[in-house]
Amino acid sequence: KKDQYILGIETSCDETAASIVKNGIEIVSNVVASQIESQKRFGGVVPEIASRHHVEQITIVIEEALQQANLKPSELDAVAVTEGPGLVGALLIGINAAKAFAFAHQLPIIGVHHIAGHIYANQLVQRMEFPLLALIVSGGHTELVLMREHGSFELIGETRDDAAGEAYDKVARVLNLPYPGGPEIDRLAAESDGEIEFPRAWLEPDSYDFSFSGLKSAVINYKHNLEQRGGTVNPAHMAAGFQNSVVDVLTTKTKKAAEQYQVRQVIAAGGVAANKQLRASLTETFLELNIPFYVPPIYLCTDNAAMIAAAGASMYENGVRSNLSMNGRPGMEL
Ligand code: KG4
Ligand code: ZN
């Protein structure tokens, strides 16, 4: 059988990325142009600035992905692109580039859900086994997804307010740490010699939903009250307390869901899955339960196009095709 090559394109947030994946499992090239340096000045992602960066970078990044792979467009089988969710202006840059490329080279185009991409990042390091439970934790998402087969996604829990990464970024701002806050809090917490106890939001006993806004408020109130009394905060202790609360809730709910649905594999995905303490906590938990647990290397946890190509490859095999009327879908459902 002939090898399959999929070009993946991702522009849903602040990374402009293109990648070529072979047979759905092997990265041939993987190019990511990050805007983090530029967005740092604003303490977060400014949609209009993100769009402008994507416009400047997109053709360069696609060219580079082809060059590194040493492939001609005619050797590709399809173009997979993030259709949603994300910033609509940002999504449209990737989608229009994908459409133009697909039209010019007579290739099929496949619209991929960003979260399906994060989940399929695992396929690049480890074959997926079903039923599978995925914990997706990123700047825009906190979700528990049950997969019974390829392409089937059952949402069993999600955040009711802030996403985990959003909480990280907001708490980091309170602690005067640079953007993105996740890696900073991760580092501070690891070095800390103590912790401030913050609450955990368990919600209803049978719920797999999450809530992080109460925790965020608790952190803000603690700092405010302490400073009102003339005290000075210990940022490391606060970071450790915040992170312990997040990791405790994420681990406990993932464990409970894995047991209830008797899954054969658990995976973590998304930017927050780069967190060292979360990785360690999940690894230990599922080692005890004897359920295989995987999390992709950090460069495949944060936004990239290899994951979009990997998800697109599976969709391609299943006969899924989009067409040139594709539009950006900021609130796209899995
Ligand atoms: O998946 P991602 O790159 O973009 C989105 O789709 O949102 O995730 C970015 C998020 C940011 O909120 C960032 O602070 C968080 O992932 N993050 C981390 C770590 N590295 C990135 N959060 C906690 N610990 C980390 N080491
Ligand atoms: Zn993402």
Number of domains: 2
CATH class annotation of the largest domain: Alpha Beta
The coarse overall form would be globular
Could you name the ranges where pLDDT drops below 50 across 5 or more consecutive residues?
A: none
What value does the Rg take, in angstroms? 20 Å
Full CATH superfamily name of the largest domain: ATPase, nucleotide binding domain
* Sequence of secondary-structure elements: EEEHHEHEHEEEHHHHEHEHH
Count of separate DSSP helical elements: 11
Which small-molecule ligands are present, each listed once? Answer: 5'-O-[(R)-(carboxyoxy)(hydroxy)phosphoryl]adenosine, zinc ion
Corresponding CATH architecture of the largest domain = 2-Layer Sandwich
The CATH topology of the largest domain corresponds to Nucleotidyltransferase, domain 5
3D architecture notes:
With 334 residues, this protein is an alpha/beta fold. The chain has 2 domains: 5-120 and 301-317, Nucleotidyltransferase, domain 5 (2-Layer Sandwich); 130-295, Nucleotidyltransferase, domain 5 (2-Layer Sandwich), CATH 3.30.420.40. The chain contains 11 helices and 10 strands. The strands form 2 sheets. A 5-stranded mixed beta sheet has the order 3-2-1-4-5, with helices on both faces. A 5-stranded mixed beta sheet has the order 8-7-6-9-10. Strand 2 and strand 3 (26-34) form a beta hairpin. Helix 2 (47-69) packs parallel to helix 3 (88-104). The longest helix has 26 residues, at 235-260. The two termini are 31 Å apart. The mean pLDDT is 95. The structure holds 5'-O-[(R)-(carboxyoxy)(hydroxy)phosphoryl]adenosine and zinc ion. Zinc ion is lined by residues 114, 118, 138, 270, 303. Belongs to the KAE1 / TsaD family. One of its GO terms (biological process) is tRNA threonylcarbamoyladenosine modification. It catalyses: L-threonylcarbamoyladenylate + adenosine(37) in tRNA = N(6)-L-threonylcarbamoyladenosine(37) in tRNA + AMP + H(+). This is tRNA N6-adenosine threonylcarbamoyltransferase. Its cofactor is Fe(2+).
